[in-house]
Specification:
about 260 residues, alpha+beta, NinB fold, 3-stranded antiparallel sheet, two-stranded antiparallel sheet, about 45% helix, binds zinc ion
Length: about 260
């Protein structure tokens, strides 16, 4: 087997490829695939020892659990399985290239800031020359007064928030809102379902749309927030839900956040 790395912008590289092709005889299978940028060990270390460490610390989940949850939130995609139904799969972080990993980490950082109120620092550029050791994150120690002295109050409430959000993924009105926005198109013999964004009025793939609460669920920081949070999260009235593409959803979330901070002043 010949396994080559060819830069098609480089004439010498191309010559190398042609010279091999000239001497080959008989049938061969030739595959040309794009070289993916290899992820650096540094990015992996930043992911585990900073990004996931913060999520774990804030929510009380183990690092492995936090990693799984973040994957389910930000790396899922929908595929039509042979029986015609759509199923949700989660991409493994090992299959991501540097750019995809950067986008994934940014989604987690945005989520941490808006949902957990936690700022996750960016990777530190100033790494000491001869030390490859990941830097230890020093987070202020909060007394573990909950769950038999194993969790801080914010970890405890974080677990409740996370459990409720997980539960809401199976909330039927969300699926109903999606169904209401679905548009079926026939492309040749194939049948494809697209979703109409309520904001930009464009059709999108399933993986590009999300369900937005017109009345924001707001924050859950203490038991007192629970009734309101649950009431807004688990809406029955699908007119209070809308399907938005990720881009419009991002803008809408930013707008809602601005509104909220303006109110609190
Ligand atoms: Zn849109």
């Amino acid at each position: 087997m010949i396994d080559l790395l060819i830069n098609f912008d480089n004439e010498e590289d191309k010559k190398k490829l042609f010279s091999i092709m000239k001497v080959l005889k008989g049938e061969h299978a030739v595959a040309i695939k794009k070289k993916r940028a290899q992820r650096s060990g540094m990015q992996n270390r930043y992911y585990w020892s900073v990004v996931i460490a913060y999520i774990s610390e804030e929510t009380g989940f183990t690092k492995e659990e936090a990693h799984q949850i973040m994957g389910r939130m930000f790396l899922k995609y929908v595929k039509t399985v042979p029986d015609g139904t759509e199923e949700v799969f989660v991409r493994s972080t090992t299959s991501l290239n540097t750019l995809e990993m950067t986008e994934y980490i940014e989604s987690i950082r945005t989520f941490a800031l808006s949902e957990l109120g936690t700022y996750i620092p960016t990777p530190m550029k100033s790494s000491t020359k001869n030390s490859n050791k990941p830097k230890r994150i020093v987070t202020p120690r909060v007394e573990r007064t909950r769950n038999g002295g194993t969790e801080t109050p914010s970890q405890h409430i974080g677990k409740i928030r996370s459990a409720l959000r997980n539960l809401s993924r199976w909330w039927k009105p969300f699926a109903m809102a999606l169904k209401a926005a679905a548009v079926t198109q026939h492309i040749g013999k194939r049948r494809r379902v697209f979703y109409l964004c309520a904001e930009c009025d464009r059709l999108h793939d399933r993986k590009e749309v999300e369900v937005n609460h017109k009345i924001p669920t707001g924050s859950l920081k203490s038991y007192e927030d629970l009734p309101g949070f649950c009431e807004r999260l688990f809406v029955e009235d699908i007119t209070l839900l809308e399907v938005l593409c990720k881009e419009c959803h991002k803008e809408e979330t930013a707008r809602q956040r601005e509104e909220r901070s303006a109110k609190s002043i």
